Amino acid sequence: MAIAGTLLAGCGEDDFKNEARAPVREALTGVIQDDAVTVSPSKLGAGPVEITISNQTDANRSITLEGESIVEREGPVAPGDTATIQKTLAPGSYEVRAGSRRAVRKEIRPAFLRIGKERKNSNNDLLLP
User: Fold this and answer.
1) Where in the sequence is the domain holding 71, given as residue range(s)?
2) Class of residue 55 by CB neighbours under 10 A (exposed 0-12, middle 13-18, buried 19+)
3) Three-state SS string across 45-80, please?
4) 1 is a domain residue
5) d(C-alpha 106, C-alpha 47), whole Å
6) Do residues 119 and 26 lie in contact, with contact meaning Cβ atoms separated by under 8 Å?
7) By the number of CB atoms within 10 A of the CB, which of 33, 38, 96, 123 ranks highest?
């Protein structure tokens, strides 16, 4: 009886909440060139993202992700090297810029991300951590 009472006391409704897991992290890739920054895909649903950007210019570049209430900077990124930004993005518009400490003749055009409504949760996806 004592063991059964202990087991029943340990079973409560508030002990386990079956909340939805976050959407699967979406991998985006980008490149910094002398004239523009590109990121692909540029349109996706809200949720966690991992943006990996390669610097294909001949100078160190810093990377800035800005939009909504986020300002995230990474770098400097050496020529031929990559950097990664991991964030959870809410719906809205975001800009990915590449900067430099030295003056340049022509500014590098930023990439724009359009983030739509939230992606579905990952409750039914297998082999996730």
Assistant:
1) 24-118
2) buried
3) EEEEEEEEEEECCCCCEEEEEEECCEEEEEEEECCC
4) no
5) 34
6) yes
7) 96
What six digits make up the tokens of 9?
Answer: 């006391």
> Taking 70 as the threshold, does the pLDDT of residue 16 lie above it?
no
CB 60 within 8 A of CB 100: yes
Q: Is 91 within a domain?
A: yes
Domain presence at residue 3: no
Per-residue pLDDT tens over the stretch 74-97: 989 999 999 999 999 999 999 999
Contact status, residue 108 vs residue 34, Cβ threshold 8 Å: yes
109 in any annotated domain: yes
Quickly list DSSP for 1-57: -HHHHHHHHH--TTS---PPPPPPPEEEEEEE-SSBEEEE--EEEEEEEEEEEEE-S
Number of domains in the chain: 1
Here the CATH number for the domain that contains residue 31 is 2.60.40.420
